[in-house]
Design brief:
218 residues
């Protein structure tokens, strides 16, 4: 094997590198020129923008409004994380029965209701219960976003997955900047929660307008 690599013509080895780079760029160009892929990526970015605006500032809210210690906040986050785990593990059975379109619409509707009431939580217990339900629903619908993303480009699923991860990290970064201003400018969790609702409405609007939910079944 080593001898064959050494004896390989230099021209062949160097020629293969531009071909690989060209193939790599062509794959991304193909995905980014697909209007449906771009729409689904934008919708996913908006969803994660709202999602991380909440996640990034749960601890700040608990300390600001309920004066919880770091230990208490950590305990609350454990329960919130359990909600996400339950939604991820058992949500697939429900989504298989309902279909992607109905499941996403149901999930968004429940999230709207939860975020509308969440800032009125009178105690950290009620706030933790509300956020646990939020994360349970998120765990239920998150795999659906991945399914929609990959369905837009069956020939480049790894590429679309990479772009989906990039959109998620971008949403997290931007949410950190916006959420920091909202948590200080508005009382309680109102600014964060209602910003999340706005981001989710925009996300759902993009999905609906693009027709991606119509192609997803029920």
């Amino acid at each position: 094997m080593a001898a064959s690599l050494v004896s390989m013509p230099q021209g062949y080895r160097t020629a293969s590198q531009p071909q690989q780079r060209g193939s790599f760029l062509q794959t991304y160009a193909s995905v980014l020129s697909n209007r449906m892929s771009l729409a689904v990526l934008l919708g996913y970015l908006l969803f994660q923008l709202g999602n991380f605006s909440v996640l990034n500032f749960i601890g700040t809210w608990f300390n600001k409004d309920f004066q919880l210690s770091l230990t208490s906040i950590g305990t609350a986050m454990i329960f919130i994380g359990i909600g996400n785990l339950i939604g991820t593990v058992f949500g697939s059975r429900l989504s298989e029965r309902l279909g992607i379109r109905t499941s996403l619409l149901l999930g968004f509707g429940v999230l709207f209701a939860l975020y509308l009431t969440l800032p009125f939580a009178p105690s950290p217990i009620f706030a933790t219960i509300g956020l646990t339900l939020v994360m349970l629903v998120n765990g239920f619908i998150f795999p659906l976003f991945m399914t929609l993303l990959q369905s837009t480009s069956t020939d480049a699923r790894s590429t679309i997955s990479s772009l989906g991860n990039a959109a998620m990290y971008a949403g997290s970064s931007v949410a950190g900047v916006i959420g920091g201003s909202l948590i200080t400018a508005f009382p309680s969790f109102f600014g964060i929660a209602y910003f999340a609702i706005i981001a989710y409405v925009l996300s759902l609007t993009v999905y609906t307008a693009s027709g991606s939910l119509n192609n997803a079944g029920k």
